[in-house]
């Protein structure tokens, strides 16, 4: 390929097929550029209430979720700080980098953190959780990451949630990169605190957290004397902010609320079932192509591979970084690396929001396959591309 045709790092990519941040929907980008109202103007207060109600409806909860003013790491840290009290024993479930990381936050607030950890290409067996909780009735809070994005693997949080509820403990769920891209809700996994955000499958830029809290979790938070208040980490401050009668504790991110509104409208207009189906098909087509090329998924079993991200295991002796750089330079396609333990060992293709369209699986497989070939890796690119198309057309 002629040097002049390659994409310089300073040029924007042609396709951003990353695992978050992701491309935002055009409707969202337009909304971000609309009028920024004064937060105490009655028009904004009514609008905020309406957006809160839409978020409530999309999340399937009884009261509106809290909209915190920072990307979902804020929601996750706030969940740990608010729900976990000083004398709590916490069970953290770690099947990847995010799950493991939550344990460090939990340790800041808990008396003790216990952990069930599995290999980062596998998932947590709910029966292991059941046995653990039976043997350790002192556990008050369990923490789990639904889709551990750096591994592209899914934990069965609905099964885990049922077990945690039966044991009388409360569950904190990180559903940041799954919510809006597959069937999942706070009710289905009986979450105490369920954290997500609009910046993955809902197709917004990174900016806000959406946090749903159950009645039982509120009772525990209200009884926790150390739960943050008058703080950016506070859930308590925002509990009633959506109500007409309440003031905002701090200025809400008005422009981002405009963007969130557009994303929620788009999601509801298309219909959740259709949105989930195109995420699932894009991922299934991508997996078919990856395997037909002669590559392996990172996930030990295809059943646990995420519908919102495909993590591709690098062949023995192949480092992911030069392959990703080649895909970017040769085709203008931006892909995601691993994180921490998975860094260098896999490449991730995101199927989130606007890029969860089946035809993007073809682009991803073409770019990844072409880059690997250019790096001297022997793969069957044509077989991979054919498999993607066959899978799409069979749907
Ligand atoms: C994206 C994401 C978050 C938010 O964290 P960042 O690293 O700041 O993007 C949290 N949890 C999961 C599982 C995520 O995918």
From TrEMBL:
Record-level GO BP terms: glycine biosynthetic process, by transamination of glyoxylate
Keywords in alphabetical order: Pyridoxal phosphate, Pyruvate
Molecular functions per Gene Ontology: alanine-glyoxylate transaminase activity; L-serine-pyruvate transaminase activity
The keyword Plastid is assigned to this record: no
Aminotransferase class V domain span: 110-340
Residues the record lists as binding substrate: 348
Modified-residue entries (N6-(pyridoxal phosphate)lysine), positions: 200
Cofactor(s) essential for the protein: pyridoxal 5'-phosphate
InterPro entries: Aminotrans_V_dom, PyrdxlP-dep_Trfase, PyrdxlP-dep_Trfase_major, PyrdxlP-dep_Trfase_small, SP_NH2Trfase/AEP_transaminase
Gene3D superfamilies linked: Aspartate Aminotransferase, domain 1, Type I PLP-dependent aspartate aminotransferase-like (Major domain)
Origin superkingdom: Bacteria
Matches recorded under PANTHER family: ALANINE--GLYOXYLATE AMINOTRANSFERASE (PTHR21152:SF40), AMINOTRANSFERASE CLASS V (PTHR21152)
Assigned protein family: Belongs to the class-V pyridoxal-phosphate-dependent aminotransferase family.
Protein's name in the database: Pyridoxamine--pyruvate transaminase
Natural source organism: Sedimentitalea nanhaiensis
Classification of source organism: Bacteria, Pseudomonadati, Pseudomonadota, Alphaproteobacteria, Rhodobacterales
């Amino acid at each position: 390929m002629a040097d002049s045709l390659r994409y310089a790092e300073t040029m924007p990519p042609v396709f951003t097929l990353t695992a978050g941040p992701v491309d935002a929907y055009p409707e969202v980008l337009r909304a971000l550029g609309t009028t920024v109202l004064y937060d105490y103007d009655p028009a904004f207060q009514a609008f905020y209430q309406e957006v809160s109600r839409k978020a409530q409806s999309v999340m399937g909860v009884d009261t509106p979720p809290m909209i915190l003013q920072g990307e979902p790491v804020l929601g996750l840290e706030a969940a740990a700080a608010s729900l976990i009290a000083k004398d709590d024993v916490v069970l953290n479930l770690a099947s990847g980098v995010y799950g493991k990381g939550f344990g460090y936050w939990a340790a800041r607030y808990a008396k003790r953190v216990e952990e069930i950890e599995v290999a980062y290409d596998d998932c947590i067996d709910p029966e292991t959780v059941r046995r653990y909780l039976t043997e350790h009735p002192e556990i008050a809070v369990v923490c789990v990451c639904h889709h551990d994005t750096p591994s592209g693997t899914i934990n069965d949080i609905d099964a885990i949630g049922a077990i945690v509820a039966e044991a009388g403990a409360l569950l904190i769920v990180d559903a940041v990169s799954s919510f809006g891209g597959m069937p999942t809700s706070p009710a289905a996994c009986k979450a105490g605190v369920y954290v997500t955000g609009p910046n993955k499958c809902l197709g917004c830029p990174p900016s806000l957290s959406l946090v749903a809290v159950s009645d039982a979790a509120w009772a525990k938070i209200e009884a926790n004397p150390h739960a943050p208040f008058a703080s950016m980490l506070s859930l308590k401050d925002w509990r009633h902010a959506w109500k007409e009668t309440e003031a905002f504790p701090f200025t809400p991110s008005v422009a981002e609320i405009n963007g969130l509104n557009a994303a929620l409208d788009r999601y509801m207009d298309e219909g959740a079932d259709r949105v989930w189906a195109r995420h699932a098909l894009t991922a299934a087509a991508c997996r078919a192509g990856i395997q037909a090329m002669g590559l392996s998924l990172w996930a030990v079993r295809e059943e646990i591979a995420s519908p919102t991200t495909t993590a591709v295991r690098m062949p023995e002796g192949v480092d992911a970084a030069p392959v990703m750089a080649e895909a970017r330079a040769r085709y203008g396609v931006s892909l995601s690396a691993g994180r921490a333990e998975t860094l260098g060992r896999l490449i991730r293709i995101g199927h989130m929001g606007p890029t969860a369209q089946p035809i993007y699986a073809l682009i991803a497989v073409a770019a990844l396959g072409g880059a690997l070939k250019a790096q001297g890796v022997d793969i069957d690119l044509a077989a991979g591309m054919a498999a993607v198309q066959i899978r799409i057309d069979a749907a």
